[in-house]
Amino acid sequence: MLPPALSHLPAPPAAAQDVHNRLVALIRSEIDAAGGWLGFERYMELALYAPGLGYYSAGSAKLGAAGDFVTAPELSPLFARCLARQVAQLMESGVRDVIEVGAGSGALAAGLLEALEAMDRAPERYLILEVSGELKARQRARIAERVPHLAPRVHWLDVLPAPLDAVVVANEVLDAIPVHVVRTHGGAIEEMGVATSAGGARFERAWRPATGALLAAAQALALPDAYETEINPAARAFVKSFARLLRRGALLFVDYGFPAAEYYHPQRAEGTLMCHYRHHAHDDPLVLAGLQDITAHVDFTAIAEAGVQAGLNVLGFATQAQFLINTGITDILGETPAHDARAYAPLAAQVQKLTSPAEMGELFKVLALGRGIDGPLIGFTRGDRTHTL
Q1: Peptide bond before residue 73 is cis, with ω within 30 degrees of 0
Q2: What's the CA gap between 327 and 84, in Å, rounded?
Q3: Confidence band, pLDDT 50/70/90 cuts, at residue 69
Q4: Domains contained in the chain, CATH given
Q5: Is the pTM of this model over 0.70?
Q6: What average pLDDT does this structure show over 323-340?
Q7: What is the pLDDT of residues 158-188, one digit of tens each?
Q8: Phi-psi region of 184 (alpha: psi -120 to 50; beta: other; left: phi over 0)
Q9: Could you give the CA distance from residue 252 to residue 86 in angstroms, rounded to a whole number?
């Protein structure tokens, strides 16, 4: 049962409720096996990725009007066209493959393939790393519909090939990697876990002293007292795993988040956890397990540091708005005559949402890490914020 503050959320259909009930039973069994306390990062992993039951693996619609949220590639085809210009420049270094991590509905894959072909830069292979069977099916259908002649170049991966000579694209991937939650309390640092309530009817937060590497990472942040936030060692490991395999190419991350100085600002004392369910956003990750997305904003300083520690170079860091302006979104918009209101007005509204500071333009960032790449990247020619990392 939902708490009163979330009673306005729509009730899930029977099939979804059944999946939720089975996932809740699985999580309860893990809590019991762990002695009554399960680290939040493990809870988040199960809620999102438990085979056949987690949010990203159970088959429910996630993206678009029928899902829970909308990402930039679904919002506007202009996003893929701009990103393609950056990918095309990177491919001039001799890289011939593109890898997309978490390809969602396939909108970005289809858009990139279409735009890259128009620039005579169609990749030899477009490789997709995707954990959701339902999304794989949607991706295949979208690509077959939009660029059927390029479909033979698209392959879905179970493991990454090595070595990698590729441009790796990850749009809204890092925010869904499970995080640890910590707080400072009375001079001590505690880690959040999940327990079952006395009656077993719901999950609830449970705190215990942080230890080991997590404690050391939290201490290094010098957080003020009465402060709650997230730390994500798994995201750093994710970046390092790609870096170890990357012989030549780049990693392009597009996500919402901040450099460390902003992420752990004293005024951000309640953390950044956010959940999305049927286009409703709220901050309670312990309800609707398996039925809602759970995300945390990205600490881009940590991501950049992980890449550098693994031998990569920071190639650029900018807001999404600046990156899209640098890669020509206004020029692309200008290809549609302004006097053709029916065609122009929707595109102009999409550009506004992608670039406005009040929408996605400022909160979303683009980070490029690479190896063996020469020269400045077009996406960061102006407004590069690498110095803030």
Answers
A1: no
A2: 9
A3: low
A4: 14-172+231-388 (3.40.50.12710)
A5: yes
A6: 96
A7: 888 899 999 999 999 999 999 999 999 998 9
A8: beta
A9: 9
The pLDDT value recorded for residue 65 is 46
Q: What percent of the chain clears pLDDT 70, i.e. is strictly above it?
A: 95
SS3 of the chain: the string is CCCHHHCCCCCCCHHHHHHHHHHHHHHHHHHHHCCCCEEHHHHHHHHHHCCCCCCCCCCCCCECCCCCECCHHHHCHHHHHHHHHHHHHHHCCCCCEEEEECCCCCHHHHHHHHHHHHCCCCCCEEEEECCCHHHHHHHHHHHHHHCHHHHHHEEEECCCCCCEEEEEEEECCHHHCCCEEEEEECCEEEEEEEEECCCCCCEEEEEEECCHHHHHHHHHCCCCCCEEEEECHHHHHHHHHHHHHEEEEEEEEEEEEECHHHHCCCCCCECCCEEEECCEEECCCCCCCCCCEEECCEEHHHHHHHHHHCCCEEEEEEEHHHHHHHCCHHHHHHCCCCCCHHHHHHHHHHHHHHHCCCCCCCCEEEEEEEECCCCCCHHHCCCCCHHHC
